[in-house]
Amino acid sequence: MIAITTSNLNGIRAASKKGMLDWSDSHTSDVWCMQEVRAPQDAIDAIMSKIKIGYIESENNEIKENSHENDNFTYINEVCKVKGRAGVALVTSLPVVGKRYGLPGLSEDVDSGRWIETDVLTPQGYEITVVSVYVHAGNVDDVEKMHQKFRFLDTMLTRLGELRDIAASGGNQAILCGDFNIAHTVLDIKNAKANEKNAGFLPEERAYIDRWINEYEFVDVMRMLAGDIQGPYTWWSQRGKAFDNNVGWRLDYQFATPELAETACGFVIDRAQSYDTRWSDHAPLTIRYNL
Fold this sequence. Notes:
Layout: E1 2-8, H1 12-18, H2 20-26, E2 31-35, H3 41-48, E3 55-59, E4 63-67, E5 74-78, E6 88-92, E7 96-101, E8 115-121, E9 127-134, H4 143-168, E10 173-179, H5 203-214, E11 219-220, H6 221-226, E12 235-236, E13 248-249, E14 252-256, H7 258-261, E15 264-269, E16 285-289
Parallel strand pairs: 1-2, 3-5, 9-10
Antiparallel strand pairs: 1-16, 2-6, 3-4, 5-6, 7-8, 8-9, 10-14, 11-14, 12-13, 15-16
């Protein structure tokens, strides 16, 4: 049994001040994928040093390695080249046998800090590929931001096809974890009708997830486990009473290749008990896999 968590931090420095470290002490997973780290490398290192980490590797303009022994943890991150934006990370207690940075085919600075792949060995000796992903949010009032989002989604299709083919031919099973900034269906958003023309619920955005599932054969693992129920959501606006009234969106997913998805046996969305105890506007999603 392994547990994989994905969570958007909404800034690692802010999250650490609001209780993220306390949360992590009692919610240990075998793999923790993080998005919107949004900090320079020295700030990230300082915070990560407080949650048992053994190996640090990062990418700014070049890859650098800082290796030291400490409880056999591995930490990998990619810092966005645009200051204060994006940034993805992955922490694991499993042996790491491969690392790849960035989504192949994209070289714009704004696309950095959004995709890292890590090959890990499970306790049973299986090698699987875990990807931490942060997709552009987009903004219908900003043509360039929507262009960036669709460019990223288009490029993702190529890599998803490659990961699918590797898994189908007997290679690594794969799982994509992250904040995809798309609510797939009306079950994934509280106010569907009111948001049909807003970024994150546009028909052309949702069509990408249709393709990932129907054409590329990836499984929306949480939805498979939850069934056709409303929600549960993973993100709530900081405005108004959205959190208190559970007016949310499901933006955080784990998409797995079929053989890996079949081993999923339970999930938890760790929604905070109250607005003032949240350390991010997203809630962590953890799924357990019985390999």
